């Protein structure tokens, strides 16, 4: 049995594996898109948001299990901890099994109701097997994390994504001769294959160390009903938040294909346009969002810690610093992708680079998504679990209305979905900012928090624009010109945020001191 790891070591292990898994997930789309094109990735992306919605429902359970297990282990009740795991395993196994059944047998009805092309059936049916294994995997991960044994969950996370990439891409290539719908189904099967591999790693580790993991003494007096209640009440708000977060993508898969058909587009063209939105633009938007994930993850305990100590001035300072960091991260990403949308698509998807205007529009959402993520973390750190859910739900409702109206207009079509995403995320960000400012007592300094970062991003944008056009004129190489302009942009932006006082040497020293104190 692996020894219990320290908090810092465990967090580092999970953090590194999480970033690696996310990177693999983003990389997965590239070979699949190159194999099956816009129509194929559009078919794949139709079913994927439904799958992610179901996974979102289960996402609160690992956190709940981990928390309950660690609490019982801390007071010497190891059998109680194991009992939490065992009861959770029954709950999640049933939830996963019935989710897979509903998804598989409900696939024809979902496709008819949402007016998807018949080729989408194979992709939706193929992904239906994954929830059953993801549910079981989540339970084992929660148990190991509660015991502070982070290595095995981290390995399983990477193995899951590796399996998804290798098997998913291989099956896409294998099934493609049968038709683009079967190729998309091969990609969808990768999710189930990855889940089986990740789950197998955890079960193998559990069976290998079962003598240590299953305590012999039976000293827990908690009733089964009580344990179930605690699990559900702990998991529910987290699952609700994750489910609402996936609704934005789900709205596109529900609304866009049908509205494009109503606007006069053929099923093939509608699927291709949807593929450009969901399979290309959204994937590229997610790349800078990986930077904000670390900020969001570290912010919840940082705010919780100082709030518990009733150090409200430190809550204010940390929240203001987090907001400024969100703006400093978000603005250059928005400006950079807006200016380089076409070159980036040509670089990443050579020969299949359609969708630059969609990416340009959608790039405006990056700043709002990063701000929203940061504000949600502040609210969660302040104990306001349901407030961000309400804000994201309202943003999603507005997105739905705008998407439905604009996407059905022939002149706007798929661009309406991108515009609605920007508006929806903007609403969620503004509402979350308002609520976070109230509970964390921080104020908005327009000069330091917006104008200076904005000036830095504009100067960076000018540098990027001229660098790209000068290099492409001299070299004729889009790849070299794009990479060079990105590097120049990063250098110019760093210089500008220092010159304008967005970031100072004092800020860096204070940050290092705070990190040392928290350790």
Automatic annotation (TrEMBL):
CDD domains: MATE_SpoVB_like
Pfam family membership, one: Polysacc_synt
Transmembrane residue ranges: 7-28, 48-69, 89-108, 120-140, 152-176, 182-207, 227-251, 283-304, 325-345, 357-379, 391-412, 418-437, 449-468, 480-509
Location of the protein in the cell: Cell membrane
Transmembrane as UniProt keyword: yes
Keywords of the record: Cell membrane, Membrane, Transmembrane, Transmembrane helix
One of the record's GO cellular component terms: plasma membrane
Broad class of where this protein is predominantly found: membrane
Membrane-topology descriptor: Multi-pass membrane protein
Entry-linked PANTHER family: LIPID II FLIPPASE MURJ (PTHR30250:SF21), PST FAMILY PREDICTED COLANIC ACID TRANSPORTER (PTHR30250)
Official protein name in the record: Stage V sporulation protein B
Source organism per UniProt: Oxobacter pfennigii
Gene: spoVB_2
